[in-house]
Write a structure and sequence with these properties.
about 230 residues; SH3 type barrels; alpha+beta; elongated; seven-stranded antiparallel beta sheet; 6 helices; single chain
């Protein structure tokens, strides 16, 4: 019964939040670059472990998502921060300068948003976004790249292209595909066919197990064979 009661309470809360956002037009007044005071979007149990004065903090809004917005949390102290964008208090008439923690984009439900704080100047906002993109590039797994054979959900794939946020890969098959556009490769003590007509996209943070790495020479041969099809 306790589980059902908790589930019903969550459903009712979600419905009320959606109605509030729709009736007040709240979702339509928020713009990218706005800084809002928001309750930390974590569970109630986790929130109880946070000191009361720190449970609500500023977030820089960058995009919309289902049921809320994406944003980056801000803090007034830079201790132990590895990646951040500095907001000078003098530019905004604030008592303290702020540090935008750009290492993690957070989903903020409507119900967690409290009040408007200020809006980032265009220069600050664009520079912050540029830094987040650089961090995404730097966060690419070093051990994965063009020529990597990886395993995902018991299937093997050959990575043939690397983008900023994802990998492109061809699947490895035990049997030669009917269309014939494939190349044999030895992998995991077996023989597989790289299916050039297949395409799989993996996010850079996907859980991939590296099986082996093909040489640059082998990768070049594969691309030449593929381009001749």
């Amino acid at each position: 019964m306790a589980f059902i009661r908790e589930w019903l309470m969550r459903c009712c809360e979600e419905i009320l939040v959606r109605l509030y956002a729709k009736e007040s037009g709240f979702a339509f007044t928020v713009e990218a670059g706005d800084v809002y005071w928001c309750e930390m979007p974590i569970s109630k149990q986790q929130l109880l472990l946070v000191p009361p004065g720190h449970r609500v903090r500023p977030f820089v809004i960058v995009d919309k998502c289902k049921g809320g917005f994406y944003g980056y949390a801000c803090t007034s102290g830079d201790k132990n921060l590895k990646r951040f964008y500095f907001i000078d208090k003098k530019q905004y008439g604030m008592r303290k300068s702020s540090y935008v923690m750009i290492d993690k984009k957070i989903e903020i439900p409507y119900g967690k948003m409290r009040s408007y704080y200020y809006h980032l100047k265009e220069e600050d906002y664009l520079q912050m976004l540029a830094m987040t993109k650089r961090e995404e590039i730097l966060s690419l797994p070093e051990e994965l790249g063009i020529g990597s054979i990886v395993q995902s959900e018991k299937r093997l794939f050959y990575i043939y292209q690397v983008k900023k946020r994802y990998f492109l890969a061809h699947e490895l098959l035990l049997e030669k595909p009917l269309h014939g556009a494939a190349r044999i490769v030895a992998c995991k003590q077996g023989r597989y066919y790289i299916d050039f007509f297949s395409e799989k996209r993996f996010k850079v943070d996907a859980k991939l197990e590296k099986v082996m790495q093909l040489s640059r020479k082998d990768c070049k041969k594969l691309e030449q064979e593929k381009s001749s099809l």
